Amino acid sequence: MKKLLILLVLFSYVMSSFAQQKTIWNETEEEKTERMLWWTEARFGMFIHWGLYAQAARHEWVKKREHISTEDYQKYFDVFDPDLFDPSEWAKKAKAAGMKYAVITTKHHEGFNMFESEFTDYNVMNTPYGKDIIKEWVDAFRAEGLKIGFYYSLIDWYHPHFTIDTRHSIKVNKQKDFDKLNKNRDMGIYREYLKNNVREILTNYGEVDILWLDFSYPGKNGKDKDDWGSVELLKMVRELQPNILVNDRLDLKDYKGGWDFTTPEQFKVDKWPEIDGKKIPWETCQTFSGSWGYYRDEHTWKDNKQLLTLLIESVSKGGNVLLNVGPTARGTFDHRADDALEDMGEWMKYNSRSIYGCTQAPEELLAPANTLFTFNPKTNRLYVHLLDYPLQNFLMPGFAGKIKYAQFLHDASEIKVGKKHGAWGNDGTNENDVNLKLPVTKPNVEIPVIEIFLKDNK
Ligand code: GLC
Fold first, then answer.
1. What is the number of the ligand 1 atom nearest to the C-alpha of 214?
2. Stated pTM of the model
């Protein structure tokens, strides 16, 4: 009996210390929802990938892709001088496109700090440019009322103590070479550096709304939470910036408070992502073309309709879009990015009501073919996005008795709500259907939106 008791005490001790270990941040679900509210309502942000690689102009992974040595890569540092950098112009462009927040690379995998740092000379202050880009950027974006976020790369191809792994820019041919190459590298020193750097960016620029850490790759010759010291790091982050939102790439997925939102990259989710049957906050990050950093000769750019559909579809599944611009080494946006932002802004100017504060529509409302629904729970309005403009009699199956009023969103022109189409019996329609009378000619809007005021059925 006594033995059993001791065992029980021991077991509960182990369990409670285990539970403690697995908690980074104690807050209720309601508190988390509240903390994330501005972000969930914003839906649309700008990602900015900018660093020395902009000068190579052939992908931000160029150092690894071409296995460029640190000595050879130095030439980019030596000439870095973005003389046309005007962050307030960038901020205005983001805002005009309808974006509500922006996340910039403070350091990418190349290891170069775009901010003034006490802990490395490999930072912007020592380039010909000589000014703290992050400071200038933060001030300009805040001034436009945009929320600000910092991307910070966990990976570092410059730091001499970052151990060489499968993702390192140094090419390793044989397994046994890893040990040889890493003989004088001490990840503990890098871990300290990482923590110091993150402390700097979260201390020197006032309130930071988002921290976007990138990325973990557990496994053989990979890196995980122990390599980064993720638990300790994130505890520090939460202490320094209690309101900050953090992405999910620190390898702390099973820690309470170890992440705030998930980050599907470069693909459209099939449905609202879930964990244990619970819908989770998510944001897809996407590029205009195939690269994050400026890539002069890359030509696979998405068109306006693809980009708008991406945004609408994400909101229709309860998510956000972080859309990337890779500025040039002069400090300007690629003209193709400018055009894309302008076109999206034109649509957002008239239709953003179907994006901000919107989410997935109630499940019992079924979207007709070639349409996407979004829904604003506060105003009880449903938005029908017409991806492929239909004919005059537009049928909404199952909507009888549900619609109070309908209009086009872009010009607030009434759309008449009629009964089911056709009087000839077996035409596939039924009494529960509603017929919206649309003009034959498609309005001059890339993706027209019908705004439906739903009846309050309470
Ligand atoms: C990947 C890439 C990186 C890019 C990031 C954006 O992790 O390594 O280049 O910054 O995705 O999500």
1. 7
2. 0.94
